[in-house]
Write a structure and sequence with these properties.
Blueprint lengths: L23 E10 L7 E8 L3 E6 L8 E6 L7 E11 L5 E7 L1
Antiparallel strand pairs: 1-2, 1-4, 2-3, 3-6, 4-5, 5-6
Length: about 100
Amino acid sequence: MAASSRPSRPSAPPPVERRRSPRRPHIAQAFLSSPTGGKRIEVLSADVSRHGICLTLRHPIACGTFDRLEFATESGRPAREVRILSCDARDDGSFHARAEFC
């Protein structure tokens, strides 16, 4: 059989990485609360980078809000302030929120 004379299609360029630092998978229990106090909600961190974090929540959270994020660790509860950038529903009924560290 003769080889095909069709020209090959150029491959698509690799996606452009928009993050300032690479994500690393990191599953940990954490809590979100208002910086001014109030009820804490339990969340799971899914991945962490130097500049942000992806969280798994049971209920949606408002975008643009500032929250206090506390990690549950044996040596205490280190806290960081975060700003919620997005919150998307998942097929399993949970929500993934992306936040940047302030």
